[in-house]
């Protein structure tokens, strides 16, 4: 049976989940804004109505814009599952120390991933490490949710 106290601001695990989720929402927004900024800086627009001048042409292949777009898409593919599984994990009443550090690991790793992928490009394995830290933490939470579920 679900304990309502688990989804209360009195629960430090739930508060931590809320905080990191909000940070990651802002991070996704920032990546979208950065993508738009890169489009303006490189005059790379995918839609004719967005062209700033009749001399410009629709372009899809600027490497800087594409790098930022890939980082943003990677966020959507990895942060959105964290939102769902993180909340379900909170409902399993995990140990606070472990849960809080898993949430921190996902949040920090996703921020680092974008920084080393799209802002200050750093050679591998930096991006791979950041990616797999977040994936491993999220997968661990998913496995714990599965283990806690009564099938």
TrEMBL record:
State the top-level EC class: transferase
GO MF annotation terms: glutathione transferase activity
Q: Where in the cell is it found?
A: Endoplasmic reticulum membrane; Mitochondrion outer membrane
Membrane topology per the entry is: Multi-pass membrane protein
InterPro entries reported for this sequence: MAPEG-like_dom_sf, Membr-assoc_MAPEG, MGST1-like
Q: Which UniProt keywords apply?
A: Acetylation, Endoplasmic reticulum, Membrane, Mitochondrion, Mitochondrion outer membrane, Transferase, Transmembrane, Transmembrane helix
Top-level taxon of the source organism? Eukaryota
Main localization category: endoplasmic reticulum
Q: What is its EC number?
A: 2.5.1.18
- Name the residues that span the membrane: 17-37, 79-99, 105-122, 129-150
Q: Name one GO cellular component term.
A: mitochondrial outer membrane
Reaction(s) catalysed by this chain's protein: RX + glutathione = an S-substituted glutathione + a halide anion + H(+)
What this protein is reported to do is described as: Conjugation of reduced glutathione to a wide number of exogenous and endogenous hydrophobic electrophiles.
Instruction: Describe its partners and assembly state.
Output: Homotrimer; The trimer binds only one molecule of glutathione.
The record's comment on protein family reads:
Belongs to the MAPEG family.
Could you tell me what this protein is called?
Microsomal glutathione S-transferase 1
